[in-house]
Structures are given as structure tokens and as C-alpha cells.
Write a structure and sequence with these properties.
two-stranded antiparallel ribbon; mainly alpha; binds zinc ion; 134 residues; 6% strand; rod-shaped
Length: 134
């Protein structure tokens, strides 16, 4: 029996959620198995995982969504975020979007020039006033 072809669902926006009928088709296409661990998905609340991830250029369309256990999906997403973090940090620094962390610097103390307390070979004092003889 030939199945009627159904047009592929494509999300209008990257954050658009596939409707229930599309989620059902995705689950049936993957034979009800989690694409991460390969286990049977027997509980509601499974996640629609984008492969490749949307952040890595994946599209929000039916053919690029695979079912996954919520636990498996969360763990994989967390792992991907850890792997991406240093790259994102470098990107922010490189583009100048993020400034390097520095403490606020004060101008500091004025530099003192050390003056000797006394001069060793000083000349004898010059009298400022002369006594006038009468
Ligand atoms: Zn799983």
C-alpha cells in the first residue's frame, strides 16, 4: 500500500515547535527510538532534537528533527554547550563584544623623589644680614 505523501513541515521561525501531528510522524519515522541512546521512548514528554543543532546551522524542519528522551537530550545539549563555551568566549573577545575582565585601577600614589636629609659637603652658611658698624 502506497502512502500518501505529506509535505514536510518547516518551522516558520527557528523557535517554532512542531505540532502534535508532526511529532507523531517524527516518532513513527524513527520507530519510537531515542536517537541518542537508542532506547524505546515509552513516556510522553520526549524532546524533538535538531540534528545538526540549530546553533550549528541546522534547520527547523521535520527531516532534521529526531526524537530523544528528555534526559538524553538535556545531557547532550549540556555537553554541546560545554564544548561550545570556549569558542564562544574567544569569539566575544575577538570581536570586541566582551571586554577583558580587569579590576578598576586607581591612579596610585604620586611618585616621591627621595631627598637627602642633609648634604655632607655643604658650604658654610651665608649671613643674610651684615652688621653695620657705627
Ligand atoms: Zn535516550
Amino acid at each position: 500500500m502506497a502512502r500518501r505523501t505529506v509535505p514536510e513541515w518547516v518551522g516558520r521561525r527557528p523557535e517554532s515547535m512542531p505540532p502534535a501531528r508532526v511529532r507523531q510522524r517524527i516518532l513513527e519515522r524513527e520507530n519510537g527510538l531515542c536517537h541518542i541512546c537508542g532506547g524505546v521512548i515509552d513516556k510522553p514528554g520526549w524532546h524533538a532534537d535538531h540534528v545538526p543543532p540549530l546553533k550549528d546551522g541546522g534547520e527547523n524542519r521535520e527531516s532534521m528533527i529526531k526524537p530523544a528522551h528528555d534526559v538524553c537530550h538535556r545531557r547532550l545539549t549540556a555537553q554541546q554547550a560545554i564544548e561550545r563555551a570556549p569558542i564562544e568566549r574567544k569569539k566575544l573577545k575577538h570581536t570586541g563584544a566582551a571586554r577583558p575582565k580587569k579590576s578598576i585601577r586607581s591612579p596610585g600614589f604620586a611618585k616621591q623623589t627621595k631627598q637627602p636629609k642633609f648634604q655632607k659637603r655643604s658650604l658654610p652658611p651665608i649671613p643674610l644680614f651684615r652688621q653695620v658698624s657705627k
